[in-house]
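Sequence only, no structure available. Ideas?
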Amino acid sequence: MPDLSSFWALDPKIAFLNHGSFGACPLPVLEEQSRLRRLMESEPVRFLDRELESRMDEARAALARFAGADPEDLAVVPNATAGVNTVLRSLRFEPGDEILATDMEYNACRNAADFAVGGTRVRSARLPFPAASPEAAAQAVLACVTKRTRLALLSHITSPTGIILPVESLVRELQGRGIDVLVDGAHAPGQVPLDLKRLDAAYYTGNCHKWLCAPKGAAFLHVRRDRQDRIRPLVISHGANSRRTDRSRFRLEADWTGTDDPTPFLCVPAAIRFMESAVPDGWPEVMRRNHVLAVEACRILAEALGVGQGCSEAMLGSMAALPLPPELAGPPAPARGLDPLQERLFSEHRIEVPVFPWPTPDRKLLRVSAQLYNRREQYLDLASALRAEARK
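Reply:
I predicted one. Tokens follow.
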């Protein structure tokens, strides 16, 4: 495989194995963002008042083609956490209503769910880890449904453990029981194929700055047409009393929530094109290569650490997480700051890789990511660094 790292601005002295946290934007996409910013600043009124709507329509259409969606059902948000909050803050819950989530939900989104139900209950399904099969994960979720379940908040790909949940079967089963599903797809676009029309979830939010490699601040919220009258943006702005009739109320409210920098989302088409052109067979090959490398990294690290692999290969995309043995778990991270082991791997070994407390503060997971700029040798170096840390 050719070395593609020159297309990214990443520090060559650091093995960056943490694409999953914030992504990394390729240089050609950053150049397109700089071009758009110069154009915007050359005449802000022309760009924002006269041209932005059509430019956003074009970017949304490109994303819709990639994600198997109707562009009219997509709202632009800065990140998936904002997408989750948009839905949860729009819906109304009564005393005793429950939101169903899992114990692997992203902490920020779990906090949003706790806030939304206002002191009633978020019921957590305990997912098996290591996860033997998608069926086992689905059974764990469905076993926690009660007569009070009003909404399910489910990660498409879990953040701490990198497990691909069987959202297709879960959406079908839960919505068949009258329970709407909000899918947190923060990690999904660009890591696994998407067909949002076919999925048919009531709500789906995803980041474009992670595996699509767009600039930070580009994400979307997909709302099924029959649920759009329930959803209001987090910021109420001019669209709330617009007299326009050429667009839906959902579009009018979502498309303008105040002045900000629209260039991250406007670069989504460029990011899709760049990644598609980076390898001969386009996006299917991007996903296949990253999956193969993530699985190999998991094997290398599991053997080096003497631990089991996190879950079956079929449930992995471009990330994999492994439990750290007790000699590497160490003390918990400070209230503000990264895990001590993560800091030592960075400062002493020049490796950037996340270490998470999970499922309890005294137990730790190490999660690796695989993107086109990564190489097998980097995971071998990580294995050597972990062995050295274990001997200390």
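The chain has two domains: 5-17+281-391, 28-272.
Hope that gets you unstuck.
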